[in-house]
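Recap quiz, item 2
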Amino acid sequence: MLSDLKSIAVKATPIALDIYDQTDPTTLLPFVAVVVRDPSLAEEVNLEWAAVFPELRKWVGDRVAQQGFAGKLKIRPELFEVTLDFDSIDIERGTALLQATEKATRIGRAFAVGKVLLAYRVLRENQLTYDGQDFFDDAHQHPDGSLASNLVSVVRADSAAPDVIEVREELSAAVDRLMANSILRDELVRSEEVRKGLVVFVRSQKVWSAYEKLRTEKSFGADPNLWQGAFELVRDFKPKAGTENTVDIVLATPNGPRPAIFVVSREPQGLKFDQSKEFASRYIPFGMDAMYGVTPAFWQTAVRVQPT
Amino acid sequence: MNVYKIRVTGAVLETSNATRRVNVDGQVLTFGTVPVYIRAAALPPEIADDPCLRIEEVQSAPPGVEVTKLKAERVQDPEADVAAEPVDKLKAERVQEPEAIVASAASSAPASSGKRRC
């Protein structure tokens, strides 16, 4: 039976990993987070390098390495698992692979959904960033000491049910703030850089409806809709109390150096049976584990729209 | 008027800056490991509801320590003009009803609501 279990786990593993890699939630992750694969078993991963944004300096007779302005970004990865009961009767019946395939699919999907939600918690729970402020806060500080806010207050006739004109205005205000906040040094910013790759997170049906209209309509009367297809729209169905009408807008940087979230990942290696339980019960624990660590990164790349 | 001793919690100390700024009506107060003393009838919600701050009500600040004074917008306190200690004037968001002041003074301790976590 031991060899049966190993053989089943080996055959089902690619199914779980394929689902994990390709399923929809995981494909959203690179838009809002940089995932650093770290196979080491260190308790803490230091991402100091991630906060270095080099600046051109005049040669003064020596080389001086530039330091990250955000200090040390530390992440402590933790162990996560998904385990299901595998009915060993199926081994005798010869239908074990069918059960394993079905369970592998569910385990792979649970990992994909879970990993994205771990990262999204930074926005949902408004976690602390490196500067000691909440991720969305009105008292952030730039490297040059100036204060900045990534909260955008907007006025809606009905704060719970904006119309499409209102959401168009608030998206413009958000982009304006993203442009201002994303300047860490003295630099020129192209509007196109900010407008490409926006991910909008909404938390109620009515707010979603207005943003979805803005995302899909070709025009509003005689005005062409310049926001058509210009952003990804994502709905959070379990928002934190009090944030239902807010909208988070993240400047997606799939290949950029300044993500809103960092994820350190020690990826799952494959499905396993808990063989210590092999003879204890008809049901044998069957699952997969991995290590993930998440930290809020650069608040400059996200804004929260707060209606009044 | 009450005196509050305010420091940041361990969660903030783990961040790179180890400080936390709070914006009270446009004025930014910075808190860290060293306690900041604030004199106010009641703390504004920006401070009182912040789960990342450890707030204690004390009898008075240690001698020589600067006390920041928070003052309600329209309620004038005659004693404020003759305060001996150097103060930074800040305005609270709303005028506090006298009953509310008494009530909040009575239940003064750390005013975190418990709904948010730091």
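Chain A touches chain B through 20 residues (CB under 8 Å).
The mean pLDDT of chain A is 89.
End of item.
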